[in-house]
Amino acid sequence: MVHDTIEVEAPLREVYDQWTQFEEFPRFMDGVEEVQQLDDRLCHWRTKIAGATREFDTEIVDQLPDQRIAWRTVGGDVKQKGVVTFEKVDEAHTRVQLSMEIEPSGIADRAAKAMGVLESRIEGDLKRFKRFIEERDHATGGWRGRLRPADSAGGTTPPDPATPGDDVPPYGSPSPESRGTPPAEEMPPSQGMPSEGMPSDGMPPSPETPPHHPRPPYDGPV
C-alpha cells in the first residue's frame, strides 16, 4: 500500500467537506476524466492514464465525518482500495493522509508499480487538492453522512463504537440551513435514522461557517 501526507491551510471541516464532493475529483486528480455519484455509496469512474481508458465502480465502505473515508472497487477494469484520513492540526490547518493499494492488471501496470508511478500520482493529487481548496474561501459542497462497514454490500465488519458525530442526516437529506430547524419535538424522523438525528454538534453551523450542501440527490435506477 502506498501512503502520502500533506498539510492543508484550511479548517478540518472545510477540507473534509471538499473531499466528499467526488464529482469534483477531475479538477485535481491526474488521469481522472469523470466521476459520477450513483448513490450515497457508489461512484462510477472513467480514467485515462498512459493512453488507456478504463471504467470502474467504487463503493464507500466507511465514512466518518471529519475523520476518514475508505473505499474499494466493486466492478470494472481496476482493482483497488484505499482510505483518506483527516486530522486537525489547529483551527486553520488540516493534515490529510491518502493510502491506496492497486492490483496490477497487466505488464504495463506492473512496470508502473515498479517505477513508483502510483507514489508520484498520489503525491501530485494531494498537492493539487491543497491548491484547489486553499484558493477558495470555502468548500464547493459537503456531505456529512455516516456510512458504516457493516452496511456495505459485502460488509461483515461490526460498526464502530458510538462516536460523536455518528448520528447525522442520511444521504440526500436537506441541510438544516435549507429547510429551517423546527423544535426538536416537531422534527420529522429521517429515513433510517432516529428523529433526533442532527449535525455532529447538535447545532446549525455558526455564522462564520459557510453553508454546506448535500451531494446531489440520487436520481438513477433503484
Give a description of the structure.
By secondary structure, the protein is an alpha+beta fold. It contains 4 helices and 7 strands; from the N terminus they run βαββββββααα. A 7-stranded antiparallel β-sheet has the order 1-7-6-5-4-3-2. The two termini are 34 Å apart. Residues 156-200 have low confidence and may be disordered.
Structural category is: alpha+beta
Give the overall average pLDDT: 77
How large a portion of the residues is in β-strands, by DSSP E? 25-35%
Unreliable parts? 156-200
Indicate the overall shape.
Answer: globular
Order of helices and strands: EHEEEEEEHHH
Distance between the termini: 34 Å
Number of strands: 7
Tag the structure with descriptive keywords:
222 residues; alpha+beta; seven-stranded antiparallel β-sheet; 4 helices
Short description:
With 222 residues, the chain is an alpha+beta fold.
Give the SSE map:
Elements: E1 2-8, H1 12-19, E2 32-37, E3 42-49, E4 52-64, E5 68-76, E6 80-90, E7 93-102, H2 107-114, H3 117-134, H4 176-179
Antiparallel strand pairs: 1-7, 2-3, 3-4, 4-5, 5-6, 6-7
